[in-house]
């Protein structure tokens, strides 16, 4: 293993949802509050970016459409189409969501192994600690109906850490709020896209950092960012902590495997406003780790 390497001093306010697209050999990710979708290729010194009219929280590629994405924004799930070279992105609503309270948006999300988009919502005022977060599924059936399906997994304050085992039969979900910091595993019905048999996978109240965004490796191990602790943790499928890798920033947000052999773990991070950053000047950057294990290519959205 090697130390974390800064690949781009992006200075993102909240860098999230990294996705490696192998066909382009490029990393995409979001800066949530700025509504930016960004793209970077190894060897390039800068990133392209596209501006969206809403906050962009999570996204997944659209199968067979290299310039199209599915994404969770503020008030629903959207199709996002990127123009060549950056600039403005075109969005089209697929399913709007009636949030439980004002001031909510989508947060973490990705596709299951069958190509259904699964994403959670949260109240942006985390200090309020309101358990109004939900997790939604949006697949081919939901697309025909024009609505997202509430998976009824609450109460949740800040749903996060969504990931699926290599065979797609286990779904992971965390609540990253300081009052929770739990990670759960569910049995996942790959035919219907329904999670059940919820059980505690890991209690991070006893570990450094709050559970944030996650990724799965070829061994079925679960990698999750330890927000506030500057770490990325690897848990074995039985919930045992295997290792923790350090980063030069306090708030890693989400990780994703990429690179030619999917053996690079890319990590996005948060650059908090209004605090002294002299001890973490690279906050908001994108980092790369070589953890000695490869990951899985992310599933893309299948609309049919």
From TrEMBL:
<protein>
    <submittedName>
        <fullName>SMP-30/gluconolactonase/LRE family protein</fullName>
    </submittedName>
</protein>
<feature type="binding site">
    <location>
        <position position="105"/>
    </location>
    <ligand>
        <name>substrate</name>
    </ligand>
</feature>
<dbReference type="GO" id="GO:0004341">
    <property type="term" value="F:gluconolactonase activity"/>
</dbReference>
<dbReference type="InterPro" id="IPR005511">
    <property type="entry name" value="SMP-30"/>
</dbReference>
<feature type="binding site">
    <location>
        <position position="125"/>
    </location>
    <ligand>
        <name>substrate</name>
    </ligand>
</feature>
<feature type="domain" description="SMP-30/Gluconolactonase/LRE-like region">
    <location>
        <begin position="15"/>
        <end position="270"/>
    </location>
</feature>
<feature type="binding site">
    <location>
        <position position="16"/>
    </location>
    <ligand>
        <name>a divalent metal cation</name>
    </ligand>
</feature>
<comment type="similarity">
    <text>Belongs to the SMP-30/CGR1 family.</text>
</comment>
<feature type="binding site">
    <location>
        <position position="212"/>
    </location>
    <ligand>
        <name>a divalent metal cation</name>
    </ligand>
</feature>
<dbReference type="Pfam" id="PF08450">
    <property type="entry name" value="SGL"/>
</dbReference>
<dbReference type="InterPro" id="IPR013658">
    <property type="entry name" value="SGL"/>
</dbReference>
<keyword id="KW-0862">Zinc</keyword>
<feature type="active site" description="Proton donor/acceptor">
    <location>
        <position position="212"/>
    </location>
</feature>
<feature type="binding site">
    <location>
        <position position="160"/>
    </location>
    <ligand>
        <name>a divalent metal cation</name>
    </ligand>
</feature>
<keyword id="KW-0479">Metal-binding</keyword>
<dbReference type="InterPro" id="IPR011042">
    <property type="entry name" value="6-blade_b-propeller_TolB-like"/>
</dbReference>
<dbReference type="GO" id="GO:0005509">
    <property type="term" value="F:calcium ion binding"/>
</dbReference>
<feature type="binding site">
    <location>
        <position position="107"/>
    </location>
    <ligand>
        <name>substrate</name>
    </ligand>
</feature>
<dbReference type="GO" id="GO:0019853">
    <property type="term" value="P:L-ascorbic acid biosynthetic process"/>
</dbReference>
